[in-house]
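Rather than argue in generalities, we reproduce a single protein record, letters for residues, whole numbers for local backbone shapes, just as it appears below:
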Amino acid sequence: MFYDTLYRHNQALAPDGLETLPAALHALNAAVDDCRRAGKSLARDAAIILLVRNLADVAERSAPSVADLRLRCAADRAAVIAAPALLDIAGHSVAGDHAAKRTFHYQERRALTRLAEAIGLDPDTARVNSTLGTDRDDGTSELRHADIGIRVVPRSFLPDSEISFHRCVGGEPAGKVHLAPMAELLDPAAFSRRLAATIGTLGALRLAA
């Protein structure tokens, strides 16, 4: 059912009280919802376009230097890379939280790729992938190699055991499964030494030993 209202039109024509970024952004988001309920095109709706221009004007007044904004954005991006969300998410379920699940497994694949490089695995023989599953489970990320298997989940049944790893023979599990907390994976050099100490010097792991 489509129906239109006056809310977005009123605010677009008289944007009093929309002089701050939070207020201007809230008004635009509310207008987008109104426009969709009315079945109107966002790209052609006059109220939407006016509120977008108002938001742009407010942003220009609050931070006129584009170069400064780019520097700040780059610094914020570097901070996120330096302190990934893995430790914040570890120990919590991400089932049903698509954003948290996507973030966790994306960062987990990066961490496993760095680990594979640290222990000297040939990238053509090591596979890193994720299985996100349904909204009822947390998903898993894995590093698979003929000599080693590493599996990571956001939350384990046991505390500080989000990582499980084991020796493989020809890609098949062969040996004891070892457990480790998420924090250890963020230090590839230290974790490669743990692998060599627990699993032994097998395949490319001789480099780590």
